[in-house]
Amino acid sequence: MSVLSLTKMTLEEFHNLKYICGLLVFASLKSLDLLRMANLEELWTTTSGFEIQGEESEAQQCFPVLSEVRITCCPKLNVKPYFPPSLLSLSFEESNEQLLSPCSFSLLPRPANESSSSCNVQSAAPCLRELQLRNMMGSSSSWELLQNHTELEILHIQCCNDLKQLPDSIRNLTSLRVLWLTECKRLCMLPEWLGELRSLQSLYVFMTPLIDSLPQSAKRLTSLVSLQICRWDKMKELPDVIQHLTSLQVLNLALCPALTVLPECIGELSALRRLQIQHCHALQCLPQSLQRLTALHELHISSSPGLARRYNQGVGPDWQLVSHIPDVRIN
Asked: Which InterPro entries is this protein grouped with (predicted)?
């Protein structure tokens, strides 16, 4: 099989490779992984123009159908002139912060001064739907690329420990359906503009020990179906704003050591189907309003001894509070 007919390509640990130049057109390539290449400086996504009978041809896309790119541990890499327009999914891990610059997605030539403020133009990757950022350095102000990707649907931010607050550019992601925030240990709060993400269906906030509440604007997340909270060390009470999440079907609370109260207003979550509580040692009881949740089908409690004693099937003193739920698992 010809290399030009490949649909997936992985380049890994080519330690002396510095440039990947646009000499060939990979007409069938859909997935490209660039992994652990510390000296790689440039990936060209277009061919250079060449002369035919004295006339220079137009540059061609080297990756006309490329839909998925993963870049891991490439600290010097820049993409030139821009990422392929066909891109659907993009993942960066421990790589050059400049990859987050709007210039990496600009259809216009790079200016002599590549400051991000001069690159507020239409994105070269208008189809981008999923972006994963892991162990990327830089403060939230350096993530301006997000403001030009309003069609983005899935955003994962993981182990980005320079982040103390979410980039304001995320508020422009009006099509965002899934937001994952994982192990960003200096992230101290969720912004008040979170409620502007009206298309958001799933919110996962894991291992962020400084966060202790949801903003009041979260009441506007009327499309939210799944909320999963893990390792909010300072949260003592689930915030009352949760009562407005009337589309919520899944609520998962895990590793919240200070959590002592679930509010009675949880009974307003008429669509709730699954409630999971894990490793919440300080939580001793469930709200009486749980009996009103007629859609609740699953209650899973694990490593929460106070709840286990109270609601153990058939023998717990308050078993009747949860006995109407078809699937109760307590261990």
From this structure: LRR_dom_sf (IPR032675), LRR_R13L4/SHOC2-like (IPR055414)
